[in-house]
Design a protein that fits this description.
Elements: H1 3-15, H2 21-29, E1 33-36, H3 70-81, E2 89-93, H4 115-124, E3 127-131, H5 151-175, E4 179-183, E5 188-189, H6 197-210, E6 220-225, E7 236-237, H7 241-251, E8 254-258, H8 272-278, E9 282-286, H9 302-314, E10 320-324, H10 333-352, H11 356-364, H12 368-378, H13 383-393, H14 401-412
Parallel strand pairs: 1-2, 1-10, 2-3, 4-6, 6-8, 8-9, 9-10
Antiparallel strand pairs: 5-7
Bound molecules: L-rhamnitol (RNT) and zinc ion.
C-alpha cells in the first residue's frame, strides 16, 4: 500500500473515533520547534578565546565531524532542517556571535554581532530564539554570575543580560517573529551554604535590573530557567524551581521548564498546566535526563508523549515556545538534531489525534474504565501512517530514509573535518 492509501485508511480509523486527521495535520503545520544550535558543536560557540565548557553541564563523547566554524554549523543545521518536516526555529546562545574574529566580551555583545545569523535565518526561513551565556567564561569560573557577592562581577553579567535582550528584540523585529530570550544561570555551591537567602536576593535584584526596560512582547519575551543542581554544584542552586516559579509569577516573565532539571522521577509534563495558569507564557527545554541532567537526545518515550498531550490539551499552544535542549557528542550530531526534533513533532501529532472530548467526558462521568481502555487503545492506532503522509507532503524523507542522507553527508562533508 502506498503512503496516500495508508493515510486514507488511517483517516477512517480516526474518523470512527471522531478525530479529523486533516485537521490534526493543519495544527501540526503551525508548530515550530526551536532547535538548539549547541547540539551542533557540543556547546562550544565561536568566541575568539575558546573557553572550556563550565557551569555544571557536560557534552561527553568525541564523535567525529563536529562543526568548528559558523559556516560549518549553518551547513549542518541546514542539512538537519532539510530532513525535518515543518518550519522551525533556531536557538542561539550569545557565545555563538559572529564578531569576524574580534574579541568581544559578553558585556558588549550587540545586535550587529548576530546580524549574519539573522540574515541566514531569513534565507532559510526560520525564526530565531536567544540565550545569554552565563558559563564558559573567566567571570563565571567560581560558580557565580548574577548572584555573585562581588558587585562588579554582578554588574558585568547584568550588562550581558541587558545586551542580550536588545539582541532578542532586534531578532524579533527583523524576522517579524517573537524571540524568546532564555535566562539560565548556573550559580550555586558544591557544598552546603551558610546562607541560602542572600544569593537568591542578589539574583532577583540582578534580574530586576536586567528586565527594568520594557520590551514589546511581540519582539522579545524573557524567560527564566530553573534547575535542581549541576555537576560540581550539588548542594545548592540559586535558581531552583521554587525561586523561579516565584520570580516568574511575581514579575510576569515566562518560565522555562527543562525536562532534566528536576528530581529523577519528577516530570515536567505535570507542571505545564500550572505554569500556564500563572505565567504569561512557557518555554520548554525538552531534553532527556538519564539518572541526572544528562541531556540525552529526546526519544519518543512516555514522558515525551505526556508532554505532547499536556501541551495540546492545554489549548494554549500559542503561549508556549517549544525548544529542545540536549547535546550528545557521542553520535552523529546532525542525526541527533533530526531524530529529537522529529520525535517531539511525533508526540504532538499523536496528541492532536487524541479524541480528547471523549476522554474528558468519561472522566467527568467518573468512568475511569473508559478513560483507561481508550487511552490504551489509542497507543496502537495507525498514527504512523498519518506521520508518513505528513513527511511526504512536506517533501522530507519518510521513515528511516533520512538516515541515508545523514550518512551520505557524513561521508562527503563531516568525515573531511
Ligand atoms: C543547563 C540548561 C541550559 C543549557 C543551555 C546550553 O542545565 O539546561 O538551558 O543547557 O543553555
Ligand atoms: Zn535547558
Amino acid at each position: 500500500m502506498n503512503i496516500t492509501s495508508r493515510y486514507q485508511a488511517a483517516r477512517e480509523v480516526y474518523a470512527a473515533l471522531g478525530v479529523n486527521t486533516d485537521e490534526a495535520l493543519k495544527k501540526l503545520d503551525r508548530i515550530s520547534i526551536s532547535i538548539q544550535c549547541w547540539q551542533g558543536d557540543d556547546v562550544g560557540g565561536f568566541e575568539s578565546v575558546g573557553a572550556a565548557l563550565t557551569g555544571g553541564i557536560q557534552a561527553p563523547g568525541n564523535y567525529p565531524g563536529m562543526a568548528r566554524t559558523i559556516d560549518e554549523l549553518r551547513a549542518d543545521a541546514e542539512k538537519a532542517i532539510s530532513l525535518i518536516p515543518g518550519r522551525h526555529r533556531f536557538n542561539l546562545h550569545a557565545s555563538y556571535l559572529d564578531s569576524a574574529g574580534k574579541k568581544v566580551d559578553r558585556d558588549t555583545v550587540e545586535p550587529k554581532h548576530f546580524q549574519s545569523w539573522i540574515d541566514w535565518a531569513k534565507q532559510v526561513g526560520m525564526g530565531l530564539d536567544f540565550n545569554p551565556t552565563y558559563f564558559s567564561h573567566p567571570k563565571a569560573a567560581d560558580g557565580f554570575t548574577l548572584a555573585h557577592a562581588d558587585k562588579s562581577i554582578r554588574d558585568f553579567w547584568i550588562r550581558h543580560g541587558i545586551q542580550s535582550r536588545k539582541i532578542g528584540a532586534e531578532i524579533g523585529r527583523q524576522l517579524g517573529s517573537t524571540c524568546a530570550t532564555n535566562f539560565w544561570m548556573p550559580d550555586g555551591f558544591k557544598d552546603i551554604p551558610a546562607d541560602r537567602l542572600a544569593p537568591r536576593e542578589r539574583m532577583a535584584d540582578s534580574l530586576d535590573q536586567i528586565f527594568a526596560t520594557k520590551i514589546d512582547p511581540k519582539l522579545n519575551v524573557d524567560s527564566v530557567e530553573a534547575k535542581l543542581f549541576g555537576i560540581g554544584l550539588e548542594s545548592y542552586t540559586v535558581g531552583s524551581h521554587e525561586f523561579y516559579m516565584g520570580y516568574a509569577v511575581s514579575r510576569q516573565t515566562h518560565l522555562t521548564l527543562d525536562s532534566g532539571h528536576f528530581h529523577p522521577t519528577e516530570v515536567i509534563s505535570d507542571k505545564i498546566s500550572s505554569v500556564l495558569m500563572f505565567c504569561p507564557g512557557l518555554v520548554l527545554h525538552v531534553s532527556r535526563p538519564v539518572r541526572w541532567d544528562s541531556d540525552h537526545v529526546v526519544l519518543l518515550d512516555d514522558e515525551l508523549q505526556a508532554i505532547g498531550r499536556e501541551l495540546v490539551r492545554s489549548g494554549k499552544l500559542d503561549k508556549v515556545h517549544i525548544g529542545l535542549d540536549y547535546f550528545d557528542a557521542s553520535i552523529n550530531r546532525v542525526a541527533a538534531w533530526v531524530v529529537g526534533t522529529r520525535n517531539i513533532l511525533k508526540s504532538l501529532l499523536v496528541a492532536f489525534l487524541e479524541p480528547s472530548a471523549t476522554l474528558r467526558k468519561a472522566e467527568l462521568e467518573g468512568d475511569y474504565t473508559v478513560r483507561m481502555v481508550l487511552s490504551e487503545e489509542l497507543k496502537s492506532l495507525p498514527w504512523s501512517a498519518v506521520w508518513d503522509y505528513w513527511c511526504e507532503t512536506k517533501c522530507v524523507p519518510v521513515g528511516p530514509a533520512w538516515l541515508d542522507e545523514v550518512k551520505a553527508y557524513e561521508k562527503t562533508v563531516l568525515s573531511k573535518r
